[in-house]
Amino acid sequence: MSKKLFEIIAHVMSIPVSEINDKSGPDTIESWDSFNGLVLLDELESTFGVKFSLEEITDVKTVEDIKKHLVNHGVNLDE
Known about the structure:
The chain is an all-alpha fold.
């Protein structure tokens, strides 16, 4: 599932998957602005069948944060 997560991020941000790692975020990906951040969260909610709280949304600063919240929602990223 981590691969799927990276593919979604790459698609939304219009960058190659190879440019994404756990430390990636708005500070390292130029196209990761507030709008694309919301688009990304919407895509993740649709794909993984979760609903992020406002607190979770404002907490997301990196891919690592996204992974943490997905796992907290019961998503297995090791598949």
